[in-house]
Amino acid sequence: MARNAPRLHDDLRRALAPFAAAPDRLSITLEDAAGNIILTSGTSSPEAPATTGVRHELRYEGALMGHLLAEGPDAGIPAMAAAIESIAILLGERLHAEAAGPTHHHHDLDTELAHGRQQQRRMVSLIAPEVTGYELASHYEAARQVGGDFFELFRLPRRGRPLGVVIADVTGKGITAALLMAFSRPLIHSAMDHARGPAEALERTNRILVEERRSTLFITALAATIDLSTGRMRLANAGHEPPLLIPGNGSAIRPLGEAGVLLGAFGSLGLGETLTDLAPGDVVVCYTDGVTDALGPSDDRFGDDRLLATIEAARGGSAQDVLDAIRDAVDGFCASIEPADDITIVAIGRQRGVA
């Protein structure tokens, strides 16, 4: 596999393992800048005849670090092509870190990979779509240690153009988690576009992770659709923190639904859907466990109680006001402690007096 190329850590080999289950459908080959094969997830060889596929340059700050070759029928599937392009950006960072040699500190490697994930995120706009009658607010803060949070707010291609909402977190850290995030994000987006509802979308994604691509990591995920004309929200939860509903009428803040089985663990999730009608003035807050698991100087967690107290103090404000309050409270609680995990918050509010 490797020929006069930098020796990659075992975690990188594991990172390409999700592609190895169906080598006749998709083969991924990683080369260095000189064209030497570093590793491959399939059975193809340099002498094999050319097949349908794509070739990505792996660059770091303009310098060519290598190439990523994706060959086979699955390489042309839009969701797969998007995942491969995302992974190519991350691998450019990884090859740069390897080329820096044994003196390159692990902390610096994490920083390089975090930089790569930030570049990968630029491929998908984090600016929420304009939605009349609703306010959409989001916050993402990458930890120095590489993790795998991702989220999207997007309009679905069906009658009425409902809002699609996805927020997810890959278990584990490091390059394996970051690459599984890059692989999974477009899969969930594509499933949301074509499924009849969020539960079916998560089931479709789970089947790919378990049966076709296989991974040693898992994903917690929320998927929801909102009918913008009625406020009807359909929610499915695969092992994620339940979102919190802040009623505009002043009644108690409450979680929506319960966490089901996380993605990638079993062949079938058996998920149901929680239906909620968002009234004018209501705000829904979705978040990853980087919020509640944030540590303070005394090594205690931010926790659920502090989160609820923060939201209670901010209720009556806009979705952006609530999000800002949570962000500021976590920042103040952590003080000078660097986060150990990504922090992602999404707040959706239905505005009053908007037809």
Please characterize this protein's 3D structure.
With 355 residues, the chain is an alpha+beta fold. The chain folds into two domains: 10-116, no CATH class; 135-350, Phosphatase 2c, domain 1. Helices cover 32% and strands 25% of the residues. The protein has a five-stranded antiparallel beta sheet. It has a five-stranded antiparallel beta sheet with strand order 6-7-8-9-12, with helices on one face. Strands 2-1-4-3 form a four-stranded antiparallel beta sheet, with helices on one face. Helix 3 (106-121) runs parallel beside helix 4 and helix 7 (303-314) crosses helix 8. The model is unreliable at 1-9 and 44-50 (pLDDT under 50).
Series of secondary-structure elements, N-terminal to C-terminal = HEEEEHHEEEHHEEEEEEHHHE
Main β sheet profile: 5 strands, antiparallel
Q: Report the top-level CATH class of the largest domain.
A: Alpha Beta
- Kindly estimate the percentage of residues that lie in beta strands according to DSSP: 15-25%
Low-confidence stretches: 1-9, 44-50
